[in-house]
Amino acid sequence: MNESMPKFLVELVHKRINLLDKKVAVLGYAFKKDTDDARDSLVPKLIRYLLRNCVDVVSVHDPLLPVARDNGLVNDSLEDALEGSQVIFLAVIHSQFMNDLVKISMLCQSNSVIVDLWASATLAA
Questions:
Q1: Residue 23 Rama label (left phi>0; alpha psi -120 to 50; beta)
Q2: Half-sphere exposure (CA, 13 Å, Cβ side) for 100?
Q3: What pLDDT, in 10s, does the model give residues 5-43?
Q4: Entry pTM
Q5: C-beta of residue 55 within 8 angstroms of C-beta of residue 66
Q6: What does the pLDDT read at residue 4?
Q7: What are phi and psi of 14, to 5 degrees?
Q8: From CA 106, how far away is CA 124, in angstroms rounded?
Q9: How far is C-alpha 10 from the geometric centre of its chain's CA atoms?
Q10: Residue 96 burial (CB < 10 Å; 0-12/13-18/19+)?
């Protein structure tokens, strides 16, 4: 994801789906897959853009990062992050997410929209 992608993606999704008053889950926070290194990650920028322009609640889950984050965000469990989320951004394609696609789709609401930023997975929510 390059520097302008978070804004572009949120605007693109918002044109197709009204993001106002939606609960959004972001899966993945690290800079790249299968690492706990969040330096240079654009996911915080994506979350800030969502909160500033569209949504009230953003839940985050990254299985490789500690539960508490120093920027005020909480790394929720997968179940907590997806509970009640109407829009899910698959921001980092950790192997664990790819291996748990069925579980993720089962935890989503039947009308959830999944935005795969990497076009790497097909989820039938």
A1: beta
A2: 15
A3: 888 889 989 898 889 989 999 999 999 899 998 888 999
A4: 0.88
A5: no
A6: 84
A7: -65, -30
A8: 9
A9: 11
A10: middle
